[in-house]
Amino acid sequence: MSNVKGLPVLEPEMEPCCPPLNERPLTAEEAERTAAMFKALGDPVRLRLFSSVASHEGGEACVCDISDVGVSQPTVSHHLKKLKEAGLLSSERRGTWVYYRVEPTVLAAMGALLTKAASA
Predict the structure, then answer these.
(1) Edge-first strand listing for the sheet containing 60-62
(2) pLDDT value at residue 3
(3) Residue 12: its pLDDT value, please?
């Protein structure tokens, strides 16, 4: 008989970047954080990379599967780094490849920011 106990899996709570736009004015910190996310998505190459990761089967993609966006591999790495710094992607190294996934809590919070404002 084993005394090994499994750890419970905790569901991540959604940490909103900021309140819906029609709820109250953003604080300076909320505006900075939110602007960084939207700025990262404001570049067409980054938006294509983000879309490639988000739409990839399983919700994650190897950098080797998403690098065909019309720029060199070092430039792809630069843009993925910017998306990661903005909190939009997370990554995990597996052997020689890096796999990226969209941060679902951040994406949900950004969606809520715009959806609630649009439906008001």
Answers:
(1) 60-62, 97-102, 89-94
(2) 56
(3) 42
Phi, psi of 52 (to 5 degrees): -65, -45
Among 30, 117, 45, 110, smallest CA distance to 81 is for 45
Q: What is the pLDDT of residue 46?
A: 94
DSSP string, 103-120: -HHHHHHHHHHHHHHHH-
Count of Cβ atoms closer than 10 Å to residue 41 Cβ: 16
- How far are the Cα atoms of 31, 32, 53, 62, 68 from residue 38, in angstroms, in the given order? 10, 10, 17, 23, 23
CA distance 91 to 84: 8
Q: Are 40 and 23 in contact (CB under 8 A)?
A: no
